[in-house]
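Table S2 (continued). Query chain:
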Amino acid sequence: MTVYKATRGDKKKLFNLPAGTPLFVIHEHTPYTDSRHPGISAGATRSYSEWIVTTKKMPFTRHPVVQSPTTGGEMSLETLLCQEREIHTSRPGLPLRGAPYRQDDYSDDRRSAERLVADLHDQQMKSSAMSRRWATARR
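Corresponding output:
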Protein backbone atom coordinates (compact mmCIF):
# COMPACT_ATOMS: atom_id res chain seq x y z
CA MET A 1 0.00 0.00 0.00
CA THR A 2 1.41 3.35 -1.08
CA VAL A 3 0.34 6.63 0.47
CA TYR A 4 0.98 9.83 -1.47
CA LYS A 5 1.12 13.00 0.62
CA ALA A 6 1.01 16.61 -0.56
CA THR A 7 4.78 16.96 -0.94
CA ARG A 8 6.74 17.88 -4.05
CA GLY A 9 8.34 14.42 -4.39
CA ASP A 10 5.09 12.51 -3.91
CA LYS A 11 3.31 14.85 -6.32
CA LYS A 12 5.81 13.99 -9.08
CA LYS A 13 5.40 10.25 -8.42
CA LEU A 14 1.61 10.57 -8.35
CA PHE A 15 1.50 12.39 -11.69
CA ASN A 16 3.44 9.52 -13.31
CA LEU A 17 0.87 6.84 -12.39
CA PRO A 18 -0.53 5.03 -15.43
CA ALA A 19 -4.09 5.57 -16.60
CA GLY A 20 -6.57 3.18 -15.02
CA THR A 21 -4.92 3.23 -11.59
CA PRO A 22 -7.50 3.37 -8.78
CA LEU A 23 -6.83 5.89 -6.00
CA PHE A 24 -8.59 6.07 -2.64
CA VAL A 25 -9.16 9.01 -0.31
CA ILE A 26 -10.14 8.52 3.35
CA HIS A 27 -12.62 11.04 4.78
CA GLU A 28 -13.03 11.87 8.46
CA HIS A 29 -16.56 12.91 9.43
CA THR A 30 -17.11 15.03 12.51
CA PRO A 31 -19.44 13.91 15.30
CA TYR A 32 -23.05 15.00 14.96
CA THR A 33 -25.29 16.06 17.83
CA ASP A 34 -28.63 17.80 17.67
CA SER A 35 -29.54 20.01 20.63
CA ARG A 36 -33.25 19.80 19.77
CA HIS A 37 -33.14 15.97 19.84
CA PRO A 38 -30.68 14.88 22.54
CA GLY A 39 -31.17 11.18 21.80
CA ILE A 40 -29.90 11.53 18.22
CA SER A 41 -26.15 11.68 17.81
CA ALA A 42 -23.44 10.04 15.78
CA GLY A 43 -19.80 9.70 16.65
CA ALA A 44 -16.91 10.51 14.36
CA THR A 45 -16.91 8.16 11.40
CA ARG A 46 -14.68 7.44 8.45
CA SER A 47 -15.43 6.55 4.85
CA TYR A 48 -13.55 6.53 1.58
CA SER A 49 -14.04 7.71 -1.97
CA GLU A 50 -12.51 6.19 -5.08
CA TRP A 51 -10.96 7.93 -8.07
CA ILE A 52 -9.56 6.46 -11.31
CA VAL A 53 -6.65 8.06 -13.21
CA THR A 54 -7.74 8.81 -16.80
CA THR A 55 -5.82 9.57 -19.99
CA LYS A 56 -7.22 13.11 -20.04
CA LYS A 57 -4.95 16.03 -19.14
CA MET A 58 -5.76 19.50 -17.85
CA PRO A 59 -5.48 22.09 -20.65
CA PHE A 60 -2.69 24.34 -19.38
CA THR A 61 -0.92 22.42 -16.62
CA ARG A 62 -1.06 18.99 -18.37
CA HIS A 63 -1.78 17.33 -15.01
CA PRO A 64 -3.79 14.07 -15.16
CA VAL A 65 -7.56 14.10 -14.66
CA VAL A 66 -9.19 11.62 -12.25
CA GLN A 67 -12.79 10.37 -12.43
CA SER A 68 -15.06 9.02 -9.70
CA PRO A 69 -16.87 5.76 -10.55
CA THR A 70 -19.49 6.55 -7.89
CA THR A 71 -20.56 9.97 -9.14
CA GLY A 72 -18.92 10.20 -12.57
CA GLY A 73 -17.36 13.54 -11.58
CA GLU A 74 -13.92 14.58 -12.83
CA MET A 75 -11.21 16.80 -11.40
CA SER A 76 -7.51 17.41 -11.69
CA LEU A 77 -5.28 15.01 -9.75
CA GLU A 78 -3.47 18.05 -8.37
CA THR A 79 -6.77 19.48 -7.08
CA LEU A 80 -7.65 16.17 -5.42
CA LEU A 81 -4.24 16.03 -3.72
CA CYS A 82 -4.50 19.65 -2.55
CA GLN A 83 -8.00 19.10 -1.15
CA GLU A 84 -7.40 15.80 0.59
CA ARG A 85 -3.66 16.02 1.44
CA GLU A 86 -3.28 12.21 1.34
CA ILE A 87 -4.11 9.62 -1.37
CA HIS A 88 -3.90 5.82 -0.95
CA THR A 89 -3.42 3.14 -3.62
CA SER A 90 -5.16 0.27 -1.82
CA ARG A 91 -8.85 -0.03 -0.93
CA PRO A 92 -9.45 0.63 2.80
CA GLY A 93 -11.86 -1.50 4.82
CA LEU A 94 -14.31 1.37 5.29
CA PRO A 95 -17.74 2.16 3.84
CA LEU A 96 -17.77 3.80 0.42
CA ARG A 97 -18.77 7.46 0.53
CA GLY A 98 -21.68 8.24 -1.74
CA ALA A 99 -22.76 4.62 -2.14
CA PRO A 100 -26.51 4.19 -2.41
CA TYR A 101 -28.21 3.78 0.97
CA ARG A 102 -31.56 2.08 1.23
CA GLN A 103 -33.44 2.07 4.53
CA ASP A 104 -35.22 -1.23 3.81
CA ASP A 105 -31.84 -2.99 3.48
CA TYR A 106 -31.38 -2.84 7.23
CA SER A 107 -34.73 -4.25 8.30
CA ASP A 108 -33.73 -7.89 7.90
CA ASP A 109 -30.16 -8.96 8.72
CA ARG A 110 -29.88 -11.68 6.11
CA ARG A 111 -31.30 -9.63 3.28
CA SER A 112 -29.19 -6.72 4.40
CA ALA A 113 -25.95 -8.69 4.21
CA GLU A 114 -26.85 -10.11 0.80
CA ARG A 115 -27.73 -6.72 -0.61
CA LEU A 116 -24.64 -5.02 0.82
CA VAL A 117 -22.36 -7.68 -0.66
CA ALA A 118 -24.13 -7.36 -4.02
CA ASP A 119 -23.80 -3.56 -3.93
CA LEU A 120 -20.12 -3.79 -3.02
CA HIS A 121 -19.53 -6.28 -5.82
CA ASP A 122 -21.39 -4.02 -8.27
CA GLN A 123 -19.32 -1.01 -7.21
CA GLN A 124 -16.05 -2.93 -7.53
CA MET A 125 -17.07 -4.16 -10.98
CA LYS A 126 -17.81 -0.57 -12.07
CA SER A 127 -14.48 0.52 -10.66
CA SER A 128 -12.48 -2.25 -12.36
CA ALA A 129 -14.32 -1.67 -15.66
CA MET A 130 -13.43 2.02 -15.49
CA SER A 131 -9.80 1.14 -14.66
CA ARG A 132 -9.63 -1.24 -17.64
CA ARG A 133 -11.22 1.33 -19.94
CA TRP A 134 -8.71 4.03 -19.04
CA ALA A 135 -5.79 1.58 -19.07
CA THR A 136 -6.65 0.47 -22.63
CA ALA A 137 -7.17 4.08 -23.71
CA ARG A 138 -3.57 4.77 -22.69
CA ARG A 139 -2.20 2.33 -25.27
